[in-house]
Every structure is written in structure tokens, then in C-alpha cells.
Backbone:
């Protein structure tokens, strides 16, 4: 069972509200990621972190922001939610395999609906 | 050109047959390649990783890598209805990011 937790699992919220999606992992992984996935569509990397105080934007432009104050915690924040932010948000962390590759473990996801 | 390309399918395969899933990637420097399975409404889960040219077998699954052709494939032998899912190819690119393809929907026909 994956030791990476996301809350809330489901969130329905009105336009203009500020939201924070929580992601925590107990595996001690340095690298953490946020992906965005619309139903039936591909995963897009929106943020990643290589460790505490490290955050980078991914390939898909996003109005969200992230922080990494503690190794185990990588929250994602939307200051003012809009209907275009409706999507599934997947958090992941990775460890280096014996071959030096990043192997991702995903959380269960947070499904956000903005009305 | 997308970094990771897959045929979106659906690919329909009779139960007990071999399912063959293909993926191409654009970054020649990529060294690590992964296949994830994603059931509808669930998160992706790792099935196989491969780093060297050739075949890697794990149970009913075989991953194949050809770096010269920039091609990765996944074979599923003795396909079962429980194998019906979307299969995502992922590549660790030169920027150390893990980039996913759109996925191939696989449907195993009972």
C-alpha cells in the first residue's frame, strides 16, 4: 500500500475561493510531484520539488503554487479557484531505484470541481 | 513532437491472447522508462521499469527497449479481463522530469 496521502479526495467549491490540496508521504522521499489529469486524458506535470525549499514549475502552465517546508509535505494552493481549474490532481513522490531511476508512487488523487 | 507518444486505442484483445502496447519517445538522452497501469478513476501504479536495451520479464509482463529506435513496448501474455485498463508509458527525460504519454486503453474481451 502506498504511503502517500492526499486530502481532500473530493472538493466542490465556488469560483474565487482559495483552496489548498494537501499531500504527505511517510517514505522519506526527497522528490515530490504534482500532476494534473482531466478524465481520459494524459497526466501533465505542473510542479515538482527535489527537496526542502526546492520548487519548480512543470511543463503545463498552472496558476497554482506549491511549497516544500518539510520533506514529507508538499501542498498545492490555488488563490482564486476558477471553473477551468476543475480537474484531478495527483501527487507523487519518488525514490531512486537500484539503477538510479526515479520510480514514482502516486497518492489516490484529489478531484476538484469549481462551480 | 510530443516527448512521449502512444496510440490511444482502444486496443481490444481476446482473453488469453498477447496484448502488445507501444511507445516512442523523442529525447535520445533518456535513460529510464516505465509502464504504469491506471484503472478508471484510480491512480497510476507501476508495472515495469526498464533501463537497458533488450527485454525484461516479470511474470506475464515483458518490457522491451530499443534506444536506437527510441521505442519501448509492453507485452502482456495470457491476457485477463483484469488487465483491462489504460497503460501509460513514462520517460525520465534529460531534465530529470518524468513525462507521461497519453496512454493506451486496453480492453480484454472475455
Residues:
Amino acid at each position: 500500500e502506498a504511503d502517500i496521502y492526499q486530502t481532500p479526495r473530493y472538493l466542490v467549491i465556488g469560483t474565487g475561493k482559495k483552496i489548498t490540496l494537501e499531500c504527505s508521504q511517510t517514505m522519506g522521499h526527497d522528490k515530490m510531484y504534482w500532476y494534473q489529469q482531466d478524465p481520459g486524458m494524459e497526466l501533465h506535470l505542473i510542479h515538482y520539488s527535489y527537496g526542502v525549499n526546492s520548487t519548480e514549475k512543470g511543463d503545463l502552465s498552472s496558476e497554482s503554487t506549491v511549497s516544500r517546508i518539510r520533506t514529507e509535505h508538499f501542498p498545492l494552493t490555488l488563490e482564486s479557484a476558477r471553473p477551468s481549474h476543475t480537474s484531478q490532481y495527483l501527487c507523487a513522490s519518488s525514490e531512486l531505484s537500484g539503477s538510479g531511476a526515479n520510480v514514482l508512487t502516486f497518492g489516490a488523487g484529489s478531484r476538484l470541481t469549481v462551480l | 513532437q510530443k516527448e512521449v507518444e502512444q496510440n490511444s486505442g482502444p486496443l481490444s484483445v481476446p482473453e488469453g491472447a498477447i496484448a502488445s502496447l507501444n511507445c516512442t519517445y523523442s529525447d535520445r538522452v533518456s535513460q529510464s522508462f516505465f509502464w504504469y497501469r491506471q484503472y478508471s478513476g484510480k491512480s497510476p501504479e507501476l508495472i515495469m521499469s526498464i533501463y537497458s536495451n533488450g527485454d525484461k520479464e516479470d511474470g506475464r509482463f515483458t518490457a522491451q527497449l530499443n534506444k536506437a529506435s527510441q521505442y519501448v513496448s509492453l507485452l502482456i501474455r495470457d491476457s485477463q479481463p483484469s488487465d483491462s485498463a489504460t497503460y501509460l508509458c513514462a520517460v525520465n527525460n534529460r531534465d530529470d522530469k518524468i513525462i507521461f504519454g497519453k496512454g493506451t486503453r486496453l480492453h480484454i474481451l472475455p
Summary: Chain B touches chain A through 22 residues (CB under 8 Å). The longest strand of chain B covers residues 85-92. The mean pLDDT of chain B is 93.
